[in-house]
Amino acid sequence: MTQSSQSSVRVRFAPSPTGYLHIGGLRTALYCYLFARKHGGQFLLRIEDTDRERYVEDAEQDIIEAMRWAGLSYDEGPGLGGSHAPYYQSQRGALYRQYAQQLLDDGHAYYAFDTPDELQAMRDRAQQEGNDAAKYDAVTRMQMKNALTLSEDEVQSLLDAGAPHVVRLKVPRSEMVRFEDLIKNEVTIASSRIDDQVLLKSDSMPTYHLANVVDDHLMEITHVIRGEEWLPSTPKHILLYQYLGWTPPKMAHLPLIMSPTGGKLSKRNAEKMGIPVSVHQYRDAGYEPEAVINFLAFLGWNPGTEQEVFSLDGLVDAFSIDRVGTSGVQFNLDKLRWFNEQHLRQLPLDDLLRRITSPLQAHGYDPDEAYLRRVVGLLHDRMKLAEDLATLYPYFFEDPTTYDEKAVKKRWKDDSSVLLTAYADRLEQAESFTEETTEAVLRALAEEHEAGAGRIIHPTRLAVSGTNVGPSLFGMLGVLGRETCVRRLRRAVEVLG
RNA sequence: GCCCCUGUGGACGAAUUGGUUAAGUCAUCACCCUUUCAAGGUGAAGGCUGCGGGUUCGAACCCCGCCGGGGGUACCA
Q1: How many other C-beta atoms lie within 10 A of the C-beta of residue A365?
Q2: What CATH superfamily classification does A10-78+213-257 receive?
Q3: A405-496 in CATH: which number?
């Protein structure tokens, strides 16, 4: 890297608590984190709670917990403090107002008193006249009720009378606004395309644009890494930096995550595809945080080598912003499952046990540890999700209540009752009950009846598990134990005849 | 509509930066292994690198024009 890697890099993840942290948000956070750590810099969390209408009470807690779960630790932020506190925009109002005032004083911003109805009327008018966009800009602002069209006295008396008003950015009529994006390279937009953006809302809260620029500067952010949906408004930010006399940070806009049905992965179209949206849903479904992180890292980035399975630290090592792609990437649940399987498999037994407990309990199972260890030993290599134990292999925790219909049809034969009864009898009397003995007993029995071993193996699996798929039969029997196996064999004979 | 970003098999993506038969992973299919299903192993199918022009001895890569996809166009972020 040409970048002198020490120190100065500061990156922030700045979510808005308008909902639970979603998977796309976590990816943005991850890239911020990777970049910061890669360069030995700081990673901070800032809560952008300027929208009172959409504020969600427990969203902030959810965001913090999701970051912790994912292992994305930050150096400054809520609960931690830091030299640039507070990290809540709702607590920094005075700052934004101060800089808005500076912009006002310098003639780069102005008061506007238009009501929502008047704005709507202006847009309707513009549309009727066939103007391509209904903008509040260098042309239309002269027809509106603002400090540019009203006299100084009128403005003052409106202000004194407490008339609702906003502060708008005075965007130049025609200027080329240019910036260098670390991912998209050079981007240029004509200022005539930019709205006179509201900076301070009538409730005196800042909009994203003002708050973001002020905070990024004050918090000494060196790199703004965020989703591509922000690319078109970046020129406004560049203008703001310029008018405030500040040097803008480096910009990097991440490609969007798409739904398999097309379009940005939103809550709605994701759920339609059975894709969990909130990070906590992944946790609850038993996905490994390392796997989710690994998967997310590869959504728009790759190391350029064959290696795909990475730990978080490994990703930090391998990460480089210039290997981030430029086009939108489709979310692929299959690939996530594969990553999950990879990570699950390399998890030491003790760690695996810890992660398996809560999904089990969620399904009402609370096996003792020694038993669980044996079950997991048998199933470790077959698991794709921590939840699988409860959903795919419930029979390790309770007797099957039904028998899979197709399996019965295929595996339950005329001689099954006789054979299983005999097998149950022998198992009951066998000297020991292990993987080896259950197999030896079964094979001997099959031979005596001049039947293939499968004649007993398959119905036994059905009787014991209720289905015809699963791990090695004898290993399974050994784990379940004599009493359980015999009971289930006899019950199957009773039910299936 | 207008503005911005973008386009390599079904999905993700590599390609020493203009160099010859366009990697690999997921998914699919087949075979092997096997008491079943996975896993694992081996292999297959799937591409005029969106389309059309150009530049060049040579283009996925550079230029032009189309077309497609996405985002933005709020007193939301």
Answers
A1: 16
A2: HUPs (3.40.50.620)
A3: 1.10.10.350
Query: Is the CATH code 3.90.800.10 the one for domain A93-200?
Result: yes
DSSP structure class, residue A230: G
How far apart (Å, rounded) are the C-alpha atoms in residues A339 and A308?
9
- Report whether pLDDT(A7) > 60: no
CATH number of A267-392: 1.10.1160.10
| Amino acid A336 CA to nucleotide B43 C1' distance, rounded Å | 25
Dist. CA A419–CA A56, nearest whole Å? 62
User: What ipTM is given for this predicted complex?
Assistant: 0.95
**Per-residue CB contacts under 7 A with strand B, chain A residues 184-203:** 184-185, 187-190, 193, 195, 198, 201-203
Q: Which of residues 306-335 of A touch strand B (CB under 7 A)?
A: 306, 308, 323, 325-330, 332, 334-335
Question: pLDDT tens digits for A196-244?
Answer: 999 999 999 999 999 999 999 999 999 999 999 999 999 999 999 999 9
**Domains of chain A, residue spans:** 10-78+213-257, 93-200, 267-392, 405-496
Q: Tokens standing for A403?
A: 């028998």
Please state, as a whole number, how many other Cβ atoms lie within 10 Å of the Cβ of residue A350: 8
Residues 372-431 of A with CB under 7 A from strand B: 381-382
